[in-house]
Amino acid sequence: MTSLDTRQKLAILADAAKYDASCASSGTVKRDSRGGNGVGSTESMGICHAYAPDGRCISLLKILLTNSCIFDCHYCINRKSSNVRRARFTTDEVVQVTLAFYKRNYIEGLFLSSGIIRSSNYTMEQLVEVARSLREDHDFRGYIHLKTIPDADPGLVRLAGLHADRVSINVELPTQDGLTRLAPEKDSGRIEGAMRDMKGAIEDGCDARRKYRSAPKFAPAGQSTQMIVGADAANDRDIVRRASHLYDRFSLRRVYYSAFSPIPSPSAVLPLKRPPLMREHRLYQSDWLMRFYGFKPSEVASATDDLGMLPLDIDPKLAWALKFRESFPVDVNRAPRELLLRVPGFGTKAVNRIISSRRWRKLGLDDISRLTLSVAKVRPFIITTDWRPTLLTDCADLRSLVAPKAEQLDLFAS
Length: 414
Ligand code: SF4
Hints:
414 residues, 7-stranded mixed β-sheet, 9 strands, Endo/Exo/Phosphatase_dom_1, Putative DNA modification/repair radical SAM protein, metal ion binding
């Protein structure tokens, strides 16, 4: 490896980290100011945006310790057989770069991951050392998200939680078949074992804090994971079931979905095309249905088509409502919160406002139109004092009436 300066390493290792979605730069438009032109890039040179546990959007330095790896996961640009330029930071270099960026107010924290060098334990030791040094040697109070290595010694993984706010372990692919085919050195049993250990350690940490206020915080922002979508044959139904299993068993804060994106010099076993980005978006929406709208995984799965895929042109909640029309219309003046949350077009805020408003007076369609973006989408599914959909809920072409109108594609879109 030729000798690289810190800036060159940063360019390589920030670029290599961008494929990891488990600290999401969600909602940003790609503006690229590399080359010294322009101000306000949201994407380049390792700065990404994530959401802190209190809902704040924070800027993180998102880098790898190294993009060298002894594993050969087919979907990964950093795999052993990939022909990419390699670089490696020392732990002290990561500490110094993080502090320098932090002091200049570029970032509010660090997201650190790594390819596996020498062994899982050695790599984990290096990651933990960065976090330890930042916290103990430099009294760093910023946010730290550490990616942990499932095969590493559980004691080391626990140390990560002592210094990091959030830890994550990627399940990578939704099924063991996919993992066997595309990441032969990984095993879903070992990955889940590491998640189970981490869940136990987080719960122990919370118990200790309840008993002793001076007990150290342990991964206060919990653990998360990432699943790659579209690299293997798993359909949306498989992915929803897998995500629900992970939430239930390991109390994950988030499952991130990352649409597979073709990499330079791809392995022959990978698909040639990326899945539509809308598929990733629909999976995030289904995730919200389970976490905030009271849908069971089986209900979300029942919104999929015969191939187990969620429709791309309408959101999963609308797809479910169109399939299960016997659950509608819902009377907004009488229905419990759980049923209101099932109405397509009602978000949690709208439902809260309906519930607090109806304590004072009966609600009509005009009241509802002020609470939603599109009353046309909501009308077939609700009853108000002055509106009852009668035959509309069951009409054969309801889908075309409530589905968003298709937009003309931009000829010059990237
Ligand atoms: S272990 Fe991680 S870095 Fe290494 S090839 Fe697999 S996904 Fe890539």
